[in-house]
Amino acid sequence: MNNKLVYEITDFSLENEELLVNETLFHNANGYLGVRSNFEEGYPEQFQSIRGSYINGFYDLAEMKQAEKLYGFVEEKQTMVNVADTQGIKLRIDQELFSMFEGEVLKSSRTLDMEKGVTKRTILWRSPKGHEVEIIVTRMASFVLLPLFTIQYDVTAMNFSGDLQFLSSHIGNVQNYFNPDDPRVAGESFRHIHVEKVEERDGVSLIRSRTSASGLQVATAVQHHLSKEGEIKHHIYGDSIEWDLKTSIELNETVSLSKYTIFADSIREENPSAHALQLMEEATAEPIETWYQKQEQFLANYWDHASVEIDGDEELSKAMYYNLYQLLQSAGKDRFSNVAAKGLSGEGYEGHYFWDTEMYIQPFFLLTQPEMAKSLIQYRYNILDSAREHARIMGHTKGALYPWRTISGKECSGYYPSGSAQYHINGDIAYSVINYYLVTKDLDFIAKYGAEMIFETARLWLDAGHFYQGQFMIHDVTGPDEYTCVVNNNYYTNALAQYHLQWAVKFYQLLQANGQTAVLEKIQLLPKEIEEFSKAAEQMYLPYDADLDINPQDDSFLSKRVWDLEKTPKDQFPLLLHYHPLYLYRHQVCKQADTVLAHFIVEDAQSLRTIENSFHYYEKITTHDSSLSTCIFSIMAAKLKEYEKAYDYFGESAKLDLFNTHKNTKDGIHTANMGGNYMAIVYGFAGLRIKESGYHFSPFLPDKWTGYQFKVHYEDSVIKVKVNSGSCQFTLVSGREKTIHVYGQAYQLEEQLSLSLEGK
């Protein structure tokens, strides 16, 4: 077993806060379903738990109260729903109920095996009467059969023989977590799901529920297999079913209970209950060991493409593997879902999808699993009509404006200055489509899906912006930095809009040249509009200060008072939880990379000197209160050859969740930051840039490492990049030869290319 693919904690704390964090860190998910890692037997009553099971893209509607009911304000939002609780298993040994909080825990550990795709709880427990048992609980969310979640509960009698009883629950009456003091989670309690039917069919419990307002249905089916003969009964209690499984156990014998759960929903299936029962037959037709084997085979292929090997820092290497595994667990696998800010690990940000996917997560999948990147883009295409509708609500007569945060396609941002005003979401999505084309050259996909998104969102810029004194300007928008809202000519927004409009013209020409013009007719795109796109791009206003030789974040940014970060007490961070938004807006202080991010993704828009000056300017006034920030500063420090600084920023980012550095991991992982870790190595340390001329690399090796390596897809080829203390090697693993650029020089990669390493 690869030790880097195992994350384990031993003799873990039973403090409530640490248990909540571990519920997140050891959750099971596969992109369709996610189950938090709660103790099967539960906690004492005084303990808090966020006990949840979620389906990606499955939502209810909730009222969003507005004090001022102005036109276009969002008054209803979608929210991810806690759908059912099938985790519960209580164990009795000769009438003694197992609990981590009673008797004596002799040994304990929690393990995530990323090679096998399972989590394990291992406990050696002595009951109050002296009975000793080893308990191993193995949980899996299948990557092969996405609706399948399993729990295998193994009990070994260490010093006795006696009676054994499992009480396994299937609970339909569940609620979502809320915290009125934290804007990053739901602020009030609401019953989002109601049980419609509870039944038992030939050893399978089935609960069908419906959401309160969205009217969506979900079905959960549960079935058990006991490893030895025993008595099995079920009892229906209102909205729940409890299974009572009794048997005996001999000294040194191991008895196993396998619990299968199938999730099904009405977004994807016309009859979720029938579908759940059908899949349960499929799941239980195979022994659970077969599903473990399939899981391991799936992951062997995944790691072959996705792994990033770091030599010289075992702890950091393990953190990187953990992050890449969580990306796989989080990403939606169909056109109905995307990647929530917390993946499927918790209820932070209510399961909403943001720009995180396009700018931080999709780059990883694009380079390692291009089909996954395509699926994520198809979700955006699937909600294009909603984006058109949103544009009309926002006053635009043409084009599409994607919502800032959403699940089904409608805007869920109640505070428009840092929500709907972030028009750069259009540019972010366009950027992801452009990058998909540059990596795959899949013009057919562009013709069928991507171009329509590109053109409709490009139309929006022409209406949102205007020409003034020979320049194209975009007023009253918010950039990535949410500590500076509703400004004129945010540099990031304008630079990305320029890039977007340039590519809208290029795609138009490509489609014309290849006779793939159906989309032009579908949306009635006129040549005159293409001319306007070109003119707006050419005359785009990009803020610039000649005295400082930097790009101001917006027209008014440099005229504001600079926030004194050094004198701000540490307990006042993150600032958003301690200062009124208007107070923040009046200062030069950044929550995250904004102009610095623009210099990464459209670096050719400015000189290296201006980029360097901007980096150092914003570095002094950025709090990194957003988890999306330090990875970008790492990438840009690497570009500027400030290698030690690049490494320090990367280290802060890589361990964010495992060390709970933002103190909110209990609400879910920081999925985009995890994608940012990958970017920090591939785009930062290896210096990859994806351009029309091909792949450009500029590798360096951090002083604390002895080497690193990874693979990237490029059109029909796979290229392995290996960096060590003396050289950088590029190997064509499969596919046709490619032209790549290393340190500014073009090379034809036929088999292997080895060059001396520049930089430390």
Automatic annotation (TrEMBL):
Keyword Methyltransferase: no
Residues in Glycoside hydrolase family 65 central catalytic domain copies: 322-678
Family affiliation: Belongs to the glycosyl hydrolase 65 family.
Annotated signal sequence range: none
Domain Glycoside hydrolase family 65 C-terminal: 688-749
The UniProt record lists the keyword Glycoprotein: no
One matching Pfam family: Glyco_hydro_65m
GO function terms (MF aspect): hydrolase activity
Keywords carried by this UniProt record: Glycosyltransferase, Hydrolase, Transferase
Name listed for the protein in its UniProt record: Glycosyl hydrolase
Superkingdom assignment: Bacteria
Domain Glycoside hydrolase family 65 N-terminal: residue ranges: 14-264
